[in-house]
Amino acid sequence: MRPIKNIFLLLLVCFFYNSDFCVANDSVKHNIINSEIIKIKKKFAPDSRLVVFDVGIINDSSGQNVLQGKTNSVIAFNELIAQINHLKIPYLNKIVQLPDSSLTEKSYGVVCQSVINLRSHPHHSSEMLSQALLGMPVLILEQTSGWLRVQTPDNYIAWTEKSSIVRFNKNQMNQWTSDRKVLFCNDFGHSYEKPDNKSQRVSDLVWGDVLMCVSESKKFIKVAYPDQRVAFVEKQFCRDYQSWINEPNPTPAIIVSTAKKFMGIPYLWGGTSVKGVDCSGFTKMIYFVNGIIIQRDASQQALYGKQVNLENGFDEISAADLLFFASESNGDLAKAITHVGLYLGEMKFIHASGRVSINSFDSRSPLFSSYRLNTLVKYQNYLNNIGSTGILKIKDSPFYQLIK
């Protein structure tokens, strides 16, 4: 009986030893793959605001290595698969490539309300990250109950309500792109059921909204929304869309004049419209209504354009340049960017802080802000760099061009 018992114990020990070895072996494999994931994310998807690369590896119930998660980066996905294949580690690929196949052909969309909110997660309680305007094209990445995850023309990725977007297939999207359109260029306004501003309102409108032009009369333009609603807008508040996107590059005077039209508009975290702006939403809107797409957040805007030399104070900075601030500086230019404003000239700048207002770097001025002077860390010239990475004319954006 004793020999049988000893054999049983030996087998039991071997079983647990091998089990522990397998677990340890899997752990090593996972560490290797996770290391590759980190490298690829750093190389191809360093900014999660612009690229989705949320992937990882687990063991399923059978002990098989399973790659799971989501990405909208084809190049990052292909690199990951190539690296794992090179390592000769067996795996099952369950990574969802966005746009999600459940969207079928309708992975394009156009904003159908005057201003829509873009959130960090598909919940009304989630942080508002940005906004998008009526007529703006988006790429739809995925959907969940009542929500769409979209990418806007500045490549920003966020969630919005399904009711905010009209989904199109490729042909429908190209039709919208080709249609004659108008830009609403008053701060605020409305569209109406009849060519009469005392008739029933159809919706509100804000500066930067785009609608399809159906026909026009002396005082009104008949317009169509992306969701096929039809209305009338006062002609005096509209301009031809094609003439807008084909305007020559704006001058410093035009940018400064545009910025001052936002004076007094309240600060709104994530705000990117005349209904409310945050600091970078304000600078973004200044350029957008002049036909230029720039990045969404201050930390992103600081990466583009041409850096102006700080050593000579304000001698080399020009009106319409962007100014970047840190929460604390003390001379440390490496501090994280937390605020942005626009230079007006004569040591004055305009920015959204509480509301859109003007301050000065001149200690003799009643508009002087010692805090902003002490936390100023960077100047970037944008106007002379239109067409470079991160500063794109609307007509040159793939979002506003025909899909091939």
Describe the SSE topology:
Blueprint (H helix, E strand, L loop, with lengths): L1 H43 L8 E7 L5 E7 L2 H14 L4 E6 L10 E4 L3 E5 L8 E6 L3 E8 L2 E5 L5 E5 L3 E4 L1 H9 L2 E4 L3 E5 L8 E6 L3 E7 L3 E5 L5 E5 L3 E3 H5 L6 H9 L11 E2 L2 E2 L1 H10 L3 E3 L3 H4 L4 E2 L14 E5 L10 E9 L2 E6 L1 E6 L9 H6 E6 L9 E3 L11
Parallel strand pairs: 2-3
Antiparallel strand pairs: 1-2, 4-7, 4-10, 5-6, 7-8, 8-9, 11-14, 11-17, 12-13, 14-15, 15-16, 18-19, 20-27, 21-26, 22-23, 22-26, 23-24, 24-25
Helix pairs in contact: 1-2
Question: What does this entry look like structurally?
Answer:
The chain has 404 residues and is α+β, with helices and mostly antiparallel strands. It folds into four domains: 74 residues, Histidine-containing Protein, Chain: A (2-Layer Sandwich); 75 residues, SH3 Domains (SH3 type barrels), CATH 2.30.30; 67 residues, SH3 Domains (SH3 type barrels), CATH 2.30.30.40; 144 residues, endopeptidase fold (from Nostoc punctiforme), CATH 3.90.1720. The chain is 25% helix and 34% strand. It contains eight helices and 27 strands. The strands form eight sheets. It has a six-stranded antiparallel beta sheet. A hairpin with a 2-residue loop joins strand 7 and strand 8. The chain is globular, with a radius of gyration of 27 Å.
List keywords for this structure.
SH3 type barrels, five-stranded antiparallel β-sheet, 8 helices, Histidine-containing Protein, Chain: A, 404 residues, alpha+beta, 4 domains, single chain
